[in-house]
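Milestone M4 deliverable, item 7.
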Amino acid sequence: FQVEPDIDSTISLAPLGIAEGIAFNGVLDGNGKTIEYAPQLKEKSGKMYFGLFYMIDESASIVNLNINVKILEHTIDSTSVVWGGCVAVNNYGLIANVNVSGTIYAKYTAKDLQIAGIAYDNNGTIAYSTVSAIITVNGGSADSGNSMIAGIASYSGNKNTNAGIYYSAFNGEMSGNDMAGIVGKVYAGTIDSCYNTGSMTVTKKYSGDIKLSGLIHTFEQSGNVVNIKYSFVKIKDLTVANTVSNNVTFGGLIHSYNRNTGINATGKISINSCNYSIDNLEINNGANITTNNWYGNNSNISNIDISDGASYNPTTAPNSIFGSGAYWALEVTNSGEGYTIKIVRNVD
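Output delivered:
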């Protein structure tokens, strides 16, 4: 399938395939065009989901597409579990050169609310994609649940140890409680040449500490290897609002880790050529914020190798994620004002 004109949807759309429980298993080439849609929450098996697709199959590709989320504005009750991503709920295939913009707003007292710029659960490949959307979660005074905003994916590598996110970025605005610039929780795989240059605003949480991360919120130590390389965080503004009285902890690259003692997991995480900085830090009303140098509360993780000098250059090994003889290849042009990236069919 190839998108020819821009598509402006004036109606709300539930995730495609969710009613039937089927995955998209084709090829969608957006051809640089834009799809605008208003996400609609859809119930399945006791949970609520949103996204353009419910599931992208391991053989499927979504490439060269711009997505403008008109608005996701919902008041969510305290019994709801709401998960979603602006492109897909579940990704097992390839999402490449997809750019997400628009506005997402949720006022909630939900039991569990997870919002991601690209995919809620990534077990495939996300590459050369950017999220510039404004994502706001407002828990209000009745906030008794859990919420997480993730710039690219809520989870990665949960069901596939080869999952990866490459050359992708968040440069929009987040406002809420717990937040992560790129991934909420990573189990396995690779985070390569990703960056967060967006803004974060911390709003009041009903109870408990607020946890922030420039890159990854949590490393789930499940006996697998996670490689993080050539990625950086340069947060434009980190603001703690006047209403916040919670303790706020910030991890520059990773906030914390969970060790799965049930399987006696050790795991390994390697951090190479990464750095972080905050241009403007504003703390109001006497809130307590603790910034952790590289990786939050991770002192028990072994085999951490941290070095400086990260940079973002899409021409560095640009086709490495597709592999030799892959269906897709990367076409990169430099106009002098920046790189233009297009995913093209590999005719070699």
